[in-house]
Design a protein that fits this description.
The protein is 46% helix and 9% strand. By secondary structure, the protein is mainly α. The longest helix is centred in the middle third of the chain and has 21 residues.
Length: 375
Protein backbone atom coordinates (compact mmCIF):
# COMPACT_ATOMS: atom_id res chain seq x y z
CA UNK A 1 0.00 0.00 0.00
CA UNK A 2 1.09 3.57 -0.67
CA UNK A 3 0.12 6.68 1.23
CA UNK A 4 -0.10 10.39 0.46
CA UNK A 5 1.42 13.34 2.25
CA UNK A 6 1.38 17.02 1.35
CA UNK A 7 4.32 19.41 1.69
CA UNK A 8 4.06 23.06 0.56
CA UNK A 9 0.95 22.28 -1.51
CA UNK A 10 2.77 19.47 -3.39
CA UNK A 11 1.78 15.83 -2.91
CA UNK A 12 4.25 13.01 -2.21
CA UNK A 13 3.72 9.25 -2.28
CA UNK A 14 5.00 7.12 0.62
CA UNK A 15 5.54 3.40 0.12
CA UNK A 16 7.91 0.56 0.98
CA UNK A 17 10.21 -1.10 -1.55
CA UNK A 18 12.78 -3.73 -0.61
CA UNK A 19 12.04 -3.15 3.06
CA UNK A 20 12.87 0.55 2.86
CA UNK A 21 10.48 3.46 2.90
CA UNK A 22 10.51 5.68 -0.17
CA UNK A 23 9.06 9.13 -0.68
CA UNK A 24 8.40 10.15 -4.28
CA UNK A 25 7.37 13.64 -5.36
CA UNK A 26 4.24 13.46 -7.52
CA UNK A 27 4.76 16.97 -8.94
CA UNK A 28 1.13 17.95 -8.57
CA UNK A 29 -1.05 20.05 -6.28
CA UNK A 30 -4.20 18.22 -7.32
CA UNK A 31 -5.46 15.57 -4.89
CA UNK A 32 -7.29 13.74 -7.69
CA UNK A 33 -4.16 13.48 -9.84
CA UNK A 34 -2.08 12.48 -6.82
CA UNK A 35 -4.49 9.64 -5.98
CA UNK A 36 -4.31 8.37 -9.59
CA UNK A 37 -0.51 8.34 -9.44
CA UNK A 38 -0.60 6.46 -6.15
CA UNK A 39 -2.94 3.93 -7.76
CA UNK A 40 -0.37 3.43 -10.54
CA UNK A 41 2.38 2.86 -7.98
CA UNK A 42 0.27 0.29 -6.10
CA UNK A 43 -0.60 -1.49 -9.36
CA UNK A 44 3.08 -1.68 -10.34
CA UNK A 45 4.01 -3.03 -6.88
CA UNK A 46 1.34 -5.70 -7.17
CA UNK A 47 2.76 -6.77 -10.55
CA UNK A 48 6.32 -6.69 -9.24
CA UNK A 49 7.28 -3.86 -11.60
CA UNK A 50 9.34 -0.73 -11.07
CA UNK A 51 7.96 2.71 -10.29
CA UNK A 52 5.69 3.56 -13.28
CA UNK A 53 5.73 7.32 -12.78
CA UNK A 54 7.70 9.40 -15.29
CA UNK A 55 11.13 10.58 -14.21
CA UNK A 56 12.18 14.25 -14.28
CA UNK A 57 15.64 14.49 -15.80
CA UNK A 58 17.33 17.71 -16.99
CA UNK A 59 17.80 17.62 -20.75
CA UNK A 60 21.49 18.51 -20.58
CA UNK A 61 22.25 15.45 -18.44
CA UNK A 62 20.55 13.11 -20.93
CA UNK A 63 22.30 14.71 -23.89
CA UNK A 64 25.73 14.54 -22.25
CA UNK A 65 25.30 10.83 -21.53
CA UNK A 66 23.92 10.17 -25.00
CA UNK A 67 26.83 11.86 -26.77
CA UNK A 68 29.25 9.78 -24.67
CA UNK A 69 27.35 6.71 -25.84
CA UNK A 70 27.50 7.82 -29.49
CA UNK A 71 31.26 8.30 -29.32
CA UNK A 72 31.61 4.74 -28.05
CA UNK A 73 29.66 3.16 -30.89
CA UNK A 74 29.94 5.52 -33.90
CA UNK A 75 32.58 7.10 -36.09
CA UNK A 76 33.41 10.69 -35.14
CA UNK A 77 32.02 12.03 -38.39
CA UNK A 78 28.65 10.40 -37.72
CA UNK A 79 28.71 11.65 -34.13
CA UNK A 80 29.23 15.24 -35.28
CA UNK A 81 26.30 14.98 -37.69
CA UNK A 82 24.02 13.73 -34.90
CA UNK A 83 25.26 16.49 -32.59
CA UNK A 84 24.29 19.09 -35.19
CA UNK A 85 20.67 17.91 -35.19
CA UNK A 86 20.61 17.71 -31.38
CA UNK A 87 22.00 21.26 -31.12
CA UNK A 88 19.37 22.54 -33.54
CA UNK A 89 16.62 20.82 -31.54
CA UNK A 90 17.61 21.65 -27.97
CA UNK A 91 20.03 24.54 -28.40
CA UNK A 92 23.66 24.58 -27.11
CA UNK A 93 22.55 23.76 -23.57
CA UNK A 94 25.60 21.71 -22.60
CA UNK A 95 29.25 21.40 -23.68
CA UNK A 96 28.58 18.00 -25.26
CA UNK A 97 26.58 19.51 -28.14
CA UNK A 98 28.18 22.96 -28.31
CA UNK A 99 30.28 24.01 -31.30
CA UNK A 100 33.89 23.07 -30.53
CA UNK A 101 35.58 24.98 -33.36
CA UNK A 102 36.18 28.51 -32.08
CA UNK A 103 36.32 30.04 -35.56
CA UNK A 104 33.03 28.43 -36.56
CA UNK A 105 31.42 29.53 -33.28
CA UNK A 106 32.56 33.15 -33.71
CA UNK A 107 31.40 33.17 -37.33
CA UNK A 108 27.97 31.97 -36.21
CA UNK A 109 27.75 34.81 -33.68
CA UNK A 110 28.75 37.45 -36.25
CA UNK A 111 26.43 36.12 -38.92
CA UNK A 112 23.40 34.56 -37.19
CA UNK A 113 20.60 32.99 -39.19
CA UNK A 114 17.95 35.43 -40.38
CA UNK A 115 14.95 33.58 -38.99
CA UNK A 116 16.30 31.00 -36.56
CA UNK A 117 13.84 28.41 -35.30
CA UNK A 118 13.89 28.45 -31.47
CA UNK A 119 14.74 25.15 -29.78
CA UNK A 120 12.04 23.08 -28.15
CA UNK A 121 11.14 24.83 -24.85
CA UNK A 122 11.44 22.37 -21.96
CA UNK A 123 13.39 22.00 -18.73
CA UNK A 124 13.03 18.24 -18.37
CA UNK A 125 13.53 15.54 -20.96
CA UNK A 126 10.24 13.86 -20.11
CA UNK A 127 8.20 17.05 -20.67
CA UNK A 128 8.67 17.09 -24.44
CA UNK A 129 5.59 15.92 -26.32
CA UNK A 130 4.90 14.59 -29.80
CA UNK A 131 3.12 17.83 -30.68
CA UNK A 132 6.15 19.94 -29.70
CA UNK A 133 8.52 17.80 -31.79
CA UNK A 134 6.15 17.88 -34.76
CA UNK A 135 5.75 21.66 -34.52
CA UNK A 136 9.51 22.15 -34.25
CA UNK A 137 10.23 20.08 -37.39
CA UNK A 138 7.40 21.81 -39.27
CA UNK A 139 8.89 25.20 -38.34
CA UNK A 140 12.27 24.06 -39.65
CA UNK A 141 10.67 23.01 -42.94
CA UNK A 142 8.82 26.33 -43.34
CA UNK A 143 11.68 28.61 -42.30
CA UNK A 144 14.62 26.85 -43.92
CA UNK A 145 12.80 25.09 -46.78
CA UNK A 146 14.15 21.74 -45.63
CA UNK A 147 13.81 18.78 -47.95
CA UNK A 148 11.54 15.97 -46.68
CA UNK A 149 14.59 13.72 -46.25
CA UNK A 150 16.25 16.25 -43.90
CA UNK A 151 13.02 16.76 -41.97
CA UNK A 152 12.72 13.00 -41.50
CA UNK A 153 16.32 12.90 -40.30
CA UNK A 154 15.37 15.19 -37.39
CA UNK A 155 12.65 12.67 -36.52
CA UNK A 156 15.06 9.73 -36.81
CA UNK A 157 17.72 11.33 -34.59
CA UNK A 158 15.18 12.17 -31.87
CA UNK A 159 13.58 8.72 -32.06
CA UNK A 160 16.98 7.10 -31.49
CA UNK A 161 17.67 9.48 -28.61
CA UNK A 162 14.44 8.62 -26.81
CA UNK A 163 14.79 4.89 -27.48
CA UNK A 164 18.26 4.93 -25.93
CA UNK A 165 17.16 7.07 -22.98
CA UNK A 166 14.21 4.80 -22.20
CA UNK A 167 15.98 1.48 -22.71
CA UNK A 168 19.51 2.22 -21.49
CA UNK A 169 19.42 5.35 -19.34
CA UNK A 170 16.51 4.66 -17.00
CA UNK A 171 14.23 7.38 -18.36
CA UNK A 172 10.52 6.75 -17.80
CA UNK A 173 8.33 8.64 -20.24
CA UNK A 174 4.62 9.33 -19.69
CA UNK A 175 2.74 6.28 -20.88
CA UNK A 176 6.09 4.60 -21.57
CA UNK A 177 5.85 6.08 -25.06
CA UNK A 178 8.49 7.53 -27.37
CA UNK A 179 7.13 10.95 -28.44
CA UNK A 180 9.38 11.26 -31.51
CA UNK A 181 8.31 7.89 -32.93
CA UNK A 182 4.73 9.14 -33.19
CA UNK A 183 5.65 12.12 -35.39
CA UNK A 184 4.36 11.59 -38.92
CA UNK A 185 7.06 11.15 -41.54
CA UNK A 186 7.29 13.52 -44.48
CA UNK A 187 6.84 11.95 -47.88
CA UNK A 188 10.20 11.83 -49.63
CA UNK A 189 10.64 12.26 -53.35
CA UNK A 190 12.37 9.68 -55.51
CA UNK A 191 16.15 10.29 -55.42
CA UNK A 192 17.61 12.29 -58.29
CA UNK A 193 20.79 10.52 -59.33
CA UNK A 194 23.35 12.48 -61.32
CA UNK A 195 26.03 10.55 -63.18
CA UNK A 196 28.41 11.04 -66.09
CA UNK A 197 27.94 9.54 -69.55
CA UNK A 198 30.88 7.85 -71.25
CA UNK A 199 31.55 11.04 -73.22
CA UNK A 200 31.41 13.13 -70.05
CA UNK A 201 33.84 10.77 -68.31
CA UNK A 202 36.36 11.41 -71.08
CA UNK A 203 35.68 15.15 -70.84
CA UNK A 204 36.22 15.15 -67.08
CA UNK A 205 39.48 13.21 -67.18
CA UNK A 206 40.85 15.26 -70.07
CA UNK A 207 40.15 18.43 -68.09
CA UNK A 208 42.51 17.19 -65.35
CA UNK A 209 45.33 16.03 -67.61
CA UNK A 210 47.67 18.74 -66.27
CA UNK A 211 47.14 17.57 -62.67
CA UNK A 212 48.09 13.89 -62.67
CA UNK A 213 47.17 13.30 -59.03
CA UNK A 214 43.67 14.78 -59.29
CA UNK A 215 43.13 12.96 -62.58
CA UNK A 216 44.11 9.62 -61.06
CA UNK A 217 41.98 10.18 -57.94
CA UNK A 218 38.94 11.06 -60.04
CA UNK A 219 39.58 7.98 -62.18
CA UNK A 220 39.49 5.85 -59.01
CA UNK A 221 36.23 7.52 -57.92
CA UNK A 222 34.65 6.87 -61.32
CA UNK A 223 35.97 3.41 -62.20
CA UNK A 224 35.96 1.90 -58.68
CA UNK A 225 32.99 3.74 -57.10
CA UNK A 226 34.87 4.57 -53.91
CA UNK A 227 33.65 7.15 -51.43
CA UNK A 228 35.71 10.32 -51.07
CA UNK A 229 37.13 9.32 -47.65
CA UNK A 230 37.96 5.85 -48.92
CA UNK A 231 40.17 7.32 -51.65
CA UNK A 232 41.89 9.70 -49.25
CA UNK A 233 42.65 6.86 -46.80
CA UNK A 234 44.17 4.56 -49.44
CA UNK A 235 47.73 3.47 -48.72
CA UNK A 236 50.21 1.77 -51.01
CA UNK A 237 49.47 -1.52 -49.22
CA UNK A 238 45.76 -1.21 -50.07
CA UNK A 239 46.47 -1.18 -53.83
CA UNK A 240 47.28 -4.77 -54.75
CA UNK A 241 48.46 -5.06 -58.34
CA UNK A 242 49.20 -8.78 -58.02
CA UNK A 243 45.64 -10.04 -57.43
CA UNK A 244 43.13 -10.59 -60.21
CA UNK A 245 43.64 -9.69 -63.86
CA UNK A 246 44.46 -6.02 -63.17
CA UNK A 247 44.67 -5.80 -59.39
CA UNK A 248 42.46 -5.07 -56.37
CA UNK A 249 41.66 -2.09 -54.17
CA UNK A 250 41.30 -3.17 -50.55
CA UNK A 251 38.97 -0.91 -48.56
CA UNK A 252 39.58 -1.88 -44.96
CA UNK A 253 39.86 -0.61 -41.42
CA UNK A 254 43.27 0.67 -40.36
CA UNK A 255 45.13 2.64 -37.73
CA UNK A 256 47.70 5.08 -39.13
CA UNK A 257 49.78 7.44 -37.06
CA UNK A 258 47.61 6.71 -34.04
CA UNK A 259 44.31 7.48 -35.81
CA UNK A 260 41.76 4.75 -36.48
CA UNK A 261 39.60 4.71 -39.61
CA UNK A 262 37.09 2.26 -41.03
CA UNK A 263 34.68 2.25 -43.99
CA UNK A 264 31.34 3.99 -43.51
CA UNK A 265 29.43 0.72 -43.16
CA UNK A 266 32.16 -0.84 -40.98
CA UNK A 267 32.56 -3.66 -43.48
CA UNK A 268 35.83 -4.29 -45.31
CA UNK A 269 35.53 -4.98 -49.03
CA UNK A 270 37.60 -5.52 -52.16
CA UNK A 271 37.02 -3.73 -55.47
CA UNK A 272 38.61 -5.16 -58.62
CA UNK A 273 40.66 -2.76 -60.71
CA UNK A 274 39.38 -2.51 -64.28
CA UNK A 275 41.63 -2.43 -67.31
CA UNK A 276 40.80 1.25 -67.87
CA UNK A 277 41.55 2.22 -64.28
CA UNK A 278 44.80 0.24 -64.33
CA UNK A 279 46.15 2.56 -67.08
CA UNK A 280 45.67 5.60 -64.86
CA UNK A 281 47.16 3.86 -61.80
CA UNK A 282 50.22 2.76 -63.79
CA UNK A 283 50.84 6.36 -64.83
CA UNK A 284 50.71 7.58 -61.23
CA UNK A 285 54.03 7.52 -59.37
CA UNK A 286 53.28 7.22 -55.66
CA UNK A 287 55.38 9.74 -53.66
CA UNK A 288 57.27 8.43 -50.66
CA UNK A 289 55.61 9.53 -47.41
CA UNK A 290 56.01 8.60 -43.77
CA UNK A 291 52.64 6.85 -43.58
CA UNK A 292 52.62 5.41 -47.09
CA UNK A 293 49.64 7.34 -48.46
CA UNK A 294 48.77 6.41 -52.02
CA UNK A 295 47.44 9.91 -52.71
CA UNK A 296 49.22 12.23 -50.23
CA UNK A 297 48.40 15.91 -49.89
CA UNK A 298 50.92 18.53 -51.10
CA UNK A 299 52.30 18.51 -47.53
CA UNK A 300 52.91 14.74 -47.66
CA UNK A 301 50.10 13.96 -45.21
CA UNK A 302 46.61 12.57 -45.65
CA UNK A 303 44.32 14.87 -47.60
CA UNK A 304 41.72 16.72 -45.53
CA UNK A 305 38.34 15.94 -47.11
CA UNK A 306 37.35 19.60 -47.39
CA UNK A 307 40.71 20.68 -48.79
CA UNK A 308 40.53 17.93 -51.41
CA UNK A 309 37.00 18.93 -52.43
CA UNK A 310 38.09 22.55 -52.70
CA UNK A 311 41.08 21.65 -54.88
CA UNK A 312 38.91 19.50 -57.14
CA UNK A 313 36.18 22.15 -57.35
CA UNK A 314 38.75 24.79 -58.29
CA UNK A 315 40.21 22.62 -61.06
CA UNK A 316 36.74 21.80 -62.39
CA UNK A 317 35.66 25.45 -62.24
CA UNK A 318 38.59 26.39 -64.46
CA UNK A 319 37.39 23.75 -66.92
CA UNK A 320 33.76 24.93 -66.53
CA UNK A 321 32.69 21.61 -65.03
CA UNK A 322 30.53 21.14 -61.94
CA UNK A 323 30.66 17.43 -61.13
CA UNK A 324 31.40 16.26 -57.59
CA UNK A 325 32.72 13.13 -55.88
CA UNK A 326 29.16 11.86 -55.39
CA UNK A 327 28.50 12.18 -59.13
CA UNK A 328 31.62 10.08 -59.81
CA UNK A 329 30.51 7.39 -57.37
CA UNK A 330 27.02 7.27 -58.90
CA UNK A 331 28.64 7.00 -62.32
CA UNK A 332 30.20 3.69 -61.31
CA UNK A 333 26.93 2.23 -59.99
CA UNK A 334 24.80 3.61 -62.81
CA UNK A 335 26.93 2.22 -65.64
CA UNK A 336 27.06 -1.20 -63.99
CA UNK A 337 23.24 -1.15 -63.67
CA UNK A 338 22.81 -0.17 -67.32
CA UNK A 339 25.24 -2.95 -68.26
CA UNK A 340 22.89 -5.41 -66.57
CA UNK A 341 24.86 -6.29 -63.43
CA UNK A 342 22.69 -7.36 -60.50
CA UNK A 343 21.95 -4.77 -57.84
CA UNK A 344 23.29 -7.23 -55.26
CA UNK A 345 26.71 -7.31 -56.96
CA UNK A 346 26.71 -3.52 -57.28
CA UNK A 347 25.90 -3.13 -53.59
CA UNK A 348 28.81 -5.41 -52.65
CA UNK A 349 31.26 -3.49 -54.82
CA UNK A 350 30.11 -0.11 -53.52
CA UNK A 351 29.75 -1.07 -49.86
CA UNK A 352 26.02 -0.28 -49.77
CA UNK A 353 22.98 -2.29 -48.82
CA UNK A 354 20.97 -3.84 -51.69
CA UNK A 355 18.04 -1.61 -50.70
CA UNK A 356 20.10 1.57 -51.14
CA UNK A 357 21.26 0.36 -54.55
CA UNK A 358 17.69 -0.47 -55.52
CA UNK A 359 16.56 3.06 -54.65
CA UNK A 360 19.44 4.62 -56.59
CA UNK A 361 19.81 2.45 -59.65
CA UNK A 362 16.66 0.34 -60.14
CA UNK A 363 15.28 2.94 -62.58
CA UNK A 364 18.19 2.15 -64.92
CA UNK A 365 17.44 -1.59 -65.01
CA UNK A 366 14.01 -1.69 -66.79
CA UNK A 367 15.68 -1.26 -70.17
CA UNK A 368 17.19 -4.68 -69.58
CA UNK A 369 13.74 -6.18 -68.77
CA UNK A 370 12.01 -5.49 -72.10
CA UNK A 371 12.13 -9.12 -73.18
CA UNK A 372 11.41 -10.47 -69.70
CA UNK A 373 7.63 -10.04 -70.04
CA UNK A 374 7.44 -12.29 -73.11
CA UNK A 375 6.41 -15.90 -72.39
Amino acid sequence: MAGLIRRNKTYYALYYSGGKQKRVCLHTESLQIAREKVRQIESAQFKGEDNPLPTRTPIDKVLTAYVDHLRAVKREGSVQRDIYYLRETFGPICPAISVKNRKVSEKGKKRPARNPVPPIPANYFEQITTAEISQFIAAQVRTRALAPKTANHFRTILTRLYNWAMQMHGIRMPGNSNPAAKVERYREKAPEISFLTLEQIDQQLRALKDNLQLQTMVAVLIYAGLRREEVLWLTAKDVDFDSGPYGMLRIRAKTIDGKFWEPKTRVNRVVPISSTLRKYLDAWLVPHTKCGWFFPSPQGTRWDVDHFSQALAKANKEAKLAWSCLDYRHTFGSHLAVKGESLYKISKLMGNSPEICRRHYAALVPEMLVETVEF
